[in-house]
Amino acid sequence: MKRVALSKIGPLRCAWCGCDDIRALEVNHKNGGGTKEYREIGPTLYRRIINGTRGVADLEILCSPDNRLEWLLRRFPDLKGRLTVTWAGAADPTREAP
Ligand SMILES: [Zn+2]
Predict the structure, then answer these.
(1) Total structural domains in the chain?
(2) DSSP letter at 64?
(3) For the segment 70-79, what is each residue's pLDDT rounded down to a tens digit?
(4) Cα 26 to middle of ligand 1, angstroms
(5) What's the CA gap between 74 and 35, in Å, rounded?
(6) CA 73 to CA 68: how far, in whole Å?
(7) Residue 45's pLDDT band (cuts 50, 70, 90)
């Protein structure tokens, strides 16, 4: 379900660092509000993306560290350029993503 939902948003990689390990990828609400949406509607984001009842224009795919960094930068803009996440690539490039 995660792979299908993320595929509706864009290529299966972090928009910021290029991480392509699906285990580390998450949906980011570009304008914030992800926690509010979760509290109001519950854990249905992937299902709503897949069935088309939830648009994706305000969503992007980020790795978990970049998703936290994005939150930090919205809260503390002065950190911009001072914190980065680096994706070193898959440990085993022949490994099939789950
Ligand atoms: Zn990333």
Answers:
(1) 1
(2) H
(3) 999 999 999 9
(4) 10
(5) 14
(6) 9
(7) very high
This model's pTM is above 0.90: no
Q: Mind listing the pLDDT tens digit for each residue in 47-92?
A: 999 999 999 999 999 999 999 999 999 999 999 999 999 999 877 6
Between the CA of 66 and the centroid of ligand 1 the distance, in Å, is 5
Domain that holds residue 48: 2-79
Q: How far is the CA of 76 from the centre of ligand 1 (A)?
A: 19
* Residue 48 maps to a domain: yes
95 CA from centroid of ligand 1 (Å): 19
Q: How far is the CA of 78 from the centre of ligand 1 (A)?
A: 20
Distance 12 CA to ligand 1 centre (A): 11
**Rounded-to-integer distance, Cα 18 and Cα 72, Å:** 19
Would you say residue 64 lies in a domain? Answer: yes
Q: Please say if the pLDDT value at position 94 is more than 70.
A: no
Which two structure tokens, joined as six digits, stand for 57? 């224009």
